[in-house]
Design brief:
This protein is an alpha+beta fold. Helix content is about 25%, strand content about 30%. It contains six helices and ten strands, in the order βαβαααββαβββαβββ. Strands 3, 4, 5, 6, 7, 8, 9 and 10 form an eight-stranded mixed beta sheet that branches.
Length: about 200
């Protein structure tokens, strides 16, 4: 659609940014780039303003307002619109997992989530990552079809152990509590946007 413009960069709308700072600004008239940004904005609204209540009337109003201006955003979120004419190949929701109080040393241990719905519901392991910038948390993302009910569980293993390839049958694995069947749950939204649950706490279902 005509008239869709994205303005992004480091500059804030301030006197310092405009007149004195060393800043960057990128202006784009590409509607597909605008859709990617708008999909992220919808994710942020869903998680932080509406607390992952997809049926909130105000959230539905936000969707109608923004996607009327950037119809490809709704297409990218899994609800194609004729006004867009785009068939994006990336079509999944994202569960962002954050785990705190993990009894693991990044120098010697690796931390994983076993997600039962991966690999055609046969299950699969997803590695978590940590950094000094994460405040002691371990984080990962799990892309799955929108609207899925996801069950998962955290565990740790020696740093060199590849749980994605070797599975979870090794005695080197330590589950956070109980066995693999005592699962945590995550419901992904019906839109292909991001869902955040957490931070989870190691050993506390």
């Amino acid at each position: 659609p005509k008239g869709v413009r994205s303005i992004t960069g480091s500059a804030n709308w301030s006197k310092g940014a405009v007149e004195s700072n060393d800043e960057n600004v990128v202006v784009s008239d590409n509607p597909y780039l605008a859709a990617i940004y708008m999909r992220e904005i919808l994710s942020q609204l869903y998680v932080y303003r509406y607390y992952q209540r997809e049926d909130a009337p105000a959230f539905q109003d936000e969707i109608r307002y923004f996607t009327a201006k950037v119809p490809c955003a709704l297409t990218l979120a899994g609800r194609p619109q004729a006004a867009c004419g785009w068939k994006p190949t990336f079509m999944s929701a994202t569960g962002a997992l954050a785990l705190q109080n993990v009894p693991a040393d990044p120098n010697t241990d690796s931390v994983w989530a076993w997600v039962n719905q991966l690999n055609g519901n046969h299950g699969g392991a997803v590695r978590l990552y940590t950094s000094h910038e994460f405040g002691g948390r371990w984080v990962t993302t799990v892309p799955l079809p929108a609207g899925w009910h996801v069950t998962f569980k955290f565990f740790k293993a020696p740093k060199g152990y590849d749980a994605a390839a070797s599975g979870v049958g090794s005695p080197q694995i330590q589950w956070e509590y109980g066995g693999v069947n005592n699962d945590r749950t995550l419901d992904l939204p019906s839109l292909n946007i991001q869902a955040v649950r957490g931070p989870y706490t190691w050993g506390q279902p």
